[in-house]
Automatic annotation (TrEMBL):
It comes from Lacibacter sediminis. This is Esterase. InterPro entries: AB_hydrolase_fold (IPR029058), Mycobacterial_A85_antigen (IPR050583). The lineage of its organism: Bacteria, Pseudomonadati, Bacteroidota, Chitinophagia, Chitinophagales.
Length: 570
């Protein structure tokens, strides 16, 4: 009997609804036979300009990622990535357009931590790369393959993990740059396994020939550095192929960077430059490329480890003065938040902070979200309409990503605050620990609905503006004159909004007056450091020369009587 037309139509509709493309990933036995944990990522690109793993971003040119958690993946098992996997920017594989793509799979490995607080969690340990899932040594992936993907049928595509990211060779000591790495007793106890922190150390000119001199310590906070940044002992490479940086609309920015590095070397070794020890700290956590230099429920006592273990060891080995008046900090973005927080939380340990474009220092302006009054982080909501909140702009205010975009990308890369990216790391630092051992979200990662209970915890423990005002009666005499903040008024991440609010609090402080300094760069974007004489693409490269010389003058008026201000100025 022939089928009716209606029956045929219904069967066709059912096949379209219930059939779907599936990607099968077999256990990669060539790399061992131990069970594996991690985040398995399917990366899909419309081009082969670079591997798909290097083309995931917040902006409109991002390529596609889908992710699933992998727990106890045993030999012989095959994992499936299909329509149940969450994706970004296309959320569901059923919505993926038919086409020919470059396809790659990557396993971001987790290890199990049995923490001091009793929680057992699975997280990616940093392996020398600064918590980047696409370059982390030991992660497994395949060389990209070109495939036809169709959602009009039930394609079953097998992709084999055939490569492993190799180890990273640690940097070598030179005449000027040394490296230190110590096992932290505090962090090892918290995480239940050996944990290390370290630093790249730039020694002053004449350090070897002035063996009796002790030096101030200049601490440059920022993201995970692979070596001391901004210092080069040779002129720019004449054969360097010029690159193009769209942000600055400049060709040959790589040569500009090398020239600035070489110029700093000449200043550092030349006459008249303050002789200090400059350091960049390496303190990656299982959540991010650094700890934000404070103690926290999810990361453990990183602030104490840096202040009481690492810094004294550096000063001991390399002849630092070793007193709070002779230490100062500077940094931008993450580093900008860190130096202000460390100055406030350890007021006697440091004699000044220069905070450039800091991450949100007042949570009434958590970028463009007021976590205390707003109900939803992703939308401004009215009776008939809701509008997406912006997350990233250029100096003209043109928006290329929303806060929702940025968070959904992180959600595809990792659940439980494990993406290794910005909003997740803020939760790892600012949030209380949840019942499952992972950070309690400040908002629902998918919907954006804010948790007011978590917001109150953030306020009492990490809202720097609120804490400064609340505790000024205890902090005022220790912080007077030590706070300097710089931010472009067109910061790409709207970080200037929090600086405005923080400045308002500073102006209200009395007994004593804060004697702080806040400055803004006209149309300056992220990383502006306060130098009005240079464009941002230059000033962002001059943190060392700019802030070290500033502090060397200020310390003359902000140091105990009788301390040595001369021997290190040869």
């Amino acid at each position: 009997m022939k089928r009716s037309l209606l029956t045929s139509y219904l069967l066709l509709l059912a096949s379209l609804l219930f059939s779907q493309t599936k990607f099968l990933i077999p256990y990669p036995s060539k790399f061992g036979n131990k069970p594996l944990d991690g985040r398995l990522l399917l990366l899909i690109s419309t081009n082969n300009k670079s591997e798909p793993r290097f083309q995931i971003s917040d902006g409109p040119q991002t390529q596609q990622v889908f992710g699933i958690n992998v727990d106890n993946w045993k030999p012989g098992e095959v994992k499936t990535i299909d329509a149940k996997a969450f994706g970004y920017p296309v959320e569901n594989m059923k919505q993926l357009k038919n086409g020919t793509y470059h396809v790659q799979v990557l396993l971001h490995k987790y290890e199990t931590f049995k923490r001091k607080d009793g929680h057992i969690v699975k997280l990616p340990m940093d392996r020398g790369e600064g918590q980047h899932w696409n370059t982390a040594p030991g992660n497994l992936y395949n060389q990209p393959v070109q495939l036809r993907v169709s959602n009009s049928g039930a394609d079953v595509i097998t992709v084999a993990l055939d490569s492993e990211i190799p180890p990273i060779e640690p940097p070598k000591d030179t005449k000027y740059i040394k490296h230190i790495k110590i096992q932290s007793k505090l962090l090892t106890e918290f995480w239940g396994r050996p944990m290390f922190i370290g630093a790249h150390i730039l020694l002053p000119e004449g350090w070897e020939t002035h063996p009796t001199v002790k030096y101030p310590l200049a601490i440059f906070h920022g993201h995970f550095p692979d070596d001391f940044s901004g210092f080069r002992t040779t002129p720019p490479d004449p054969d360097l192929k010029p690159d193009y940086i769209a942000r600055f609309n400049l060709t040959g920015y790589n040569k500009i960077v090398q020239q600035e590095e070489y110029d700093f070397y000449k200043l550092w070794t030349g006459p008249g430059f303050p002789r200090v020890i400059a350091i960049e700290i390496q303190h990656p956590t299982p959540f991010y490329d650094d700890s934000y230099a404070v103690n926290s429920a999810n990361n453990g006592p990183y602030g104490d480890a840096i202040v009481y273990e690492l810094i004294p060891e550096i000063e001991k080995r390399f002849r630092g003065i070793g007193e709070g008046w002779a230490r100062f900090m500077y940094g931008g973005s993450t580093g900008g938040w860190e130096v202000l927080a460390a100055q406030m939380f350890y007021p006697d340990a440091f004699n000044g902070c220069y905070s450039a474009c800091p991450d949100p220092i007042d949570f009434r302006a958590y970028m463009v979200v007021d976590i205390y009054k707003d109900k939803n982080a992703y939308y401004q909501e009215g009776p008939f309409k809701k509008t997406l909140r912006p997350g990233h702009r250029n100096y003209l205010g043109h928006v290329d990503a929303t806060i929702r975009d940025m968070n959904l990308r992180e959600l595809a890369l990792g659940t439980n605050s494990r993406s290794g990216d910005q909003f997740d790391v803020w939760e790892s630092v600012f949030s209380p620990c949840g019942a499952d051992g992972y950070p309690q979200p400040i908002w629902n990662k998918y919907t954006g609905e804010i948790d007011s209970t978590v917001a109150r915890y953030w306020k009492e423990n990490y809202d720097l503006g609120y804490i400064l005002e609340r505790d000024w009666n205890k902090l005022g005499n220790k912080l007077q004159g030590k706070i300097k903040i710089y931010c472009g008024d067109m910061d790409n991440y709207y970080l200037n909004n929090a600086v405005y609010l923080f400045e308002e609090r500073l102006k209200k402080l009395t007994n004593p007056f804060a004697n702080a300094f806040v400055d803004y760069g006209d149309r300056a974007e992220h990383c502006w450091n306060g130098d009005h004489t240079q464009p941002n693409y230059i000033s962002r490269l001059r943190y060392n020369r700019y802030f070290i010389t500033k502090w060397a003058e200020e310390v003359k008026t902000r140091s105990p009587q009788g301390v040595d201000l001369l021997s290190w100025r040869y």
